[in-house]
């Protein structure tokens, strides 16, 4: 009985923690007004999240094998609680940066450990679906954050505090869920930094899959950091709930499609995802050029579909080819590429907006991402042709 409920409890905890990582998305415009900073500062504040994620992946990536899943998950929840408290009292940029780093640490700790725990507590007949369910909990939590915060900021009192108060309650419940769930680790691992490496024989496949992940995650970074500003400054709508809805559209589409696309062969799926991402970026460029709110939502949905397929199936392609004893290293390297993509291109967008204007920089970002996804698509097609010729 505890095993059965543990699966659901851990999935809830995973989603609840990830809600906090995107909760500030509709609030960046309010912070910029109160603290008098521009889009570049917004992108830097947002991107410090990736610093926390990468630090957690590299430092704590192997700890749950040695210490157990529960202690590491509780540490991740602790980082989430600390982040929420910092945001409750944040009145300057350094506190915003600290809150985002703590939020990134919570996400980085949870990403691998919660996925492993969910798989290990799942019923035997559902083990093949457990990874997908963990991914949906992850992406679903990311999508719920902007939507929840947008509604509360727009229609409830204390716009910069209430959302984080709600999230603190969700995290406290997540702590209870983690304590109630069974421990699944045999504690046979050792402490140490997570190595990053890719075997030479699989580097061509890894390069294309990682390039697709880079393109897709750069778009999710844009939607988390800058799209609410697009809604306000380019489209001319100052409703925070609408901004949260647009930002969450990419995550909702990604979560749904990852569950639906799990039976598509990995390499073919990455190619399909790249093609769809190109279409999404063209729609985004048009939406910003016109400007058009409906097209902005459509762009988020289409880009989310492309990102979800290419990322999840790209990870499957990498894991499929990696030697069993090096799978963790290769998967961690893949995630590092993805989280670098969430930060660096978005900061570049912030710099570009200062010199070219927000709309022009956004159109350029969309077209550059489309070009990267198209290059990845061509590379996959050429790889498939070479493979077919040598059979």
From TrEMBL:
<dbReference type="Pfam" id="PF07690">
    <property type="entry name" value="MFS_1"/>
</dbReference>
<feature type="domain" description="Major facilitator superfamily (MFS) profile">
    <location>
        <begin position="1"/>
        <end position="386"/>
    </location>
</feature>
<feature type="transmembrane region" description="Helical">
    <location>
        <begin position="296"/>
        <end position="318"/>
    </location>
</feature>
<keyword id="KW-0472">Membrane</keyword>
<dbReference type="InterPro" id="IPR036259">
    <property type="entry name" value="MFS_trans_sf"/>
</dbReference>
<feature type="transmembrane region" description="Helical">
    <location>
        <begin position="360"/>
        <end position="382"/>
    </location>
</feature>
<feature type="transmembrane region" description="Helical">
    <location>
        <begin position="72"/>
        <end position="90"/>
    </location>
</feature>
<keyword id="KW-0812">Transmembrane</keyword>
<feature type="transmembrane region" description="Helical">
    <location>
        <begin position="330"/>
        <end position="348"/>
    </location>
</feature>
<keyword id="KW-1133">Transmembrane helix</keyword>
<feature type="transmembrane region" description="Helical">
    <location>
        <begin position="205"/>
        <end position="227"/>
    </location>
</feature>
<feature type="transmembrane region" description="Helical">
    <location>
        <begin position="269"/>
        <end position="290"/>
    </location>
</feature>
<protein>
    <submittedName>
        <fullName>MFS transporter</fullName>
    </submittedName>
</protein>
<feature type="transmembrane region" description="Helical">
    <location>
        <begin position="37"/>
        <end position="60"/>
    </location>
</feature>
<feature type="transmembrane region" description="Helical">
    <location>
        <begin position="96"/>
        <end position="119"/>
    </location>
</feature>
<keyword id="KW-0813">Transport</keyword>
<dbReference type="GO" id="GO:0022857">
    <property type="term" value="F:transmembrane transporter activity"/>
</dbReference>
<feature type="transmembrane region" description="Helical">
    <location>
        <begin position="7"/>
        <end position="31"/>
    </location>
</feature>
<dbReference type="GO" id="GO:0005886">
    <property type="term" value="C:plasma membrane"/>
</dbReference>
<feature type="transmembrane region" description="Helical">
    <location>
        <begin position="131"/>
        <end position="156"/>
    </location>
</feature>
<feature type="transmembrane region" description="Helical">
    <location>
        <begin position="239"/>
        <end position="257"/>
    </location>
</feature>
<dbReference type="InterPro" id="IPR011701">
    <property type="entry name" value="MFS"/>
</dbReference>
<dbReference type="InterPro" id="IPR020846">
    <property type="entry name" value="MFS_dom"/>
</dbReference>
<feature type="transmembrane region" description="Helical">
    <location>
        <begin position="162"/>
        <end position="184"/>
    </location>
</feature>
<dbReference type="InterPro" id="IPR050171">
    <property type="entry name" value="MFS_Transporters"/>
</dbReference>
<keyword id="KW-1003">Cell membrane</keyword>
